[in-house]
Design goal:
Layout: E1 4-7, E2 14-17, E3 27-30, H1 33-39, E4 44-50, E5 54-58, E6 62-66, E7 76-80, E8 87-92, E9 98-102, E10 112-116, H2 147-155
Parallel strand pairs: 3-10
Antiparallel strand pairs: 1-2, 2-5, 3-4, 4-9, 6-7, 7-8, 8-9
The chain binds zinc ion (2 copies).
One zinc ion binds at residues 30, 32, 34-35, 44.
Length: 156
C-alpha cells in the first residue's frame, strides 16, 4: 500500500505512515474522558500503527505525559503541535511497538471499527458501529491495552 502523509493544521508537523494503514484497519472511537478533553470534542478518532512504520518528517511536537491513573499499565505520552495545538498521536509504555495516531491529520479516511469507553457516552449519542463492537471500557488484549489491540482483534 502507498504511504500516507498527514500534518497538523498549521503545517509545522508533518507525519508519514509507511505503507499506509492496513487494508482492514478500522478506526477506534474512544469515549474516555481524557480523549474527549484532549480532542476538545465528544471522542477521539484513532488507529494503531506500527512504530517502525511511523515517521515524523518535519517539526518537533510537544509531548504531554498523561498523569497515571488507576488501571494504567504504563506511562502514556500524547504528542501535539505546540503551534496550532492539533493532537497528533499517543504512545504507551505498555505497547512499545505501536503508535496510536489521531486520524483527522490524515483525513479521517478509515471507517469506524469499534467504540470503547462507551460508558462515558451521553444518552443522546448513537454508536457508529454495530452493538457487538461497542465496549464499555478498554479491552485487555495480550498484555497490551492500547486501542490498537481492539482494532487487531476486529481485523481477524
Ligand atoms: Zn501545527
Ligand atoms: Zn481514550
Amino acid at each position: 500500500m502507498a504511504n500516507i502523509e498527514g500534518s497538523c493544521h498549521c503545517g509545522t508537523i508533518k507525519l508519514r505512515i509507511l505503507g499506509g494503514f492496513g487494508e482492514n484497519t478500522r478506526a477506534i472511537v474512544c469515549h474516555c474522558s481524557v480523549c474527549a478533553t484532549l480532542a476538545g470534542s465528544l471522542f477521539a478518532y484513532v488507529a494503531q500503527v506500527s512504530r517502525v512504520n511511523f515517521q515524523v518528517l518535519q517539526g518537533t511536537t510537544k509531548a504531554y505525559k498523561q498523569p497515571k491513573s488507576e488501571g494504567m499499565s504504563g506511562q502514556i505520552t500524547r504528542h501535539f503541535c505546540g503551534d496550532c495545538g492539533t493532537p497528533l498521536w499517543a504512545e504507551s509504555e505498555a505497547m512499545p511497538d505501536g503508535i496510536s495516531v489521531k486520524l483527522a491529520p490524515f483525513g479521517n479516511k478509515l471507517p469506524p471499527g469499534a467504540e470503547i469507553f462507551w460508558k462515558n457516552a451521553h444518552k443522546w449519542q448513537k454508536p457508529m458501529v454495530v452493538s457487538e463492537a461497542v465496549f464499555d471500557g478498554m479491552l485487555i488484549w495480550e498484555g497490551g491495552y492500547q486501542v490498537g489491540a481492539v482494532a487487531t482483534s476486529l481485523m481477524d
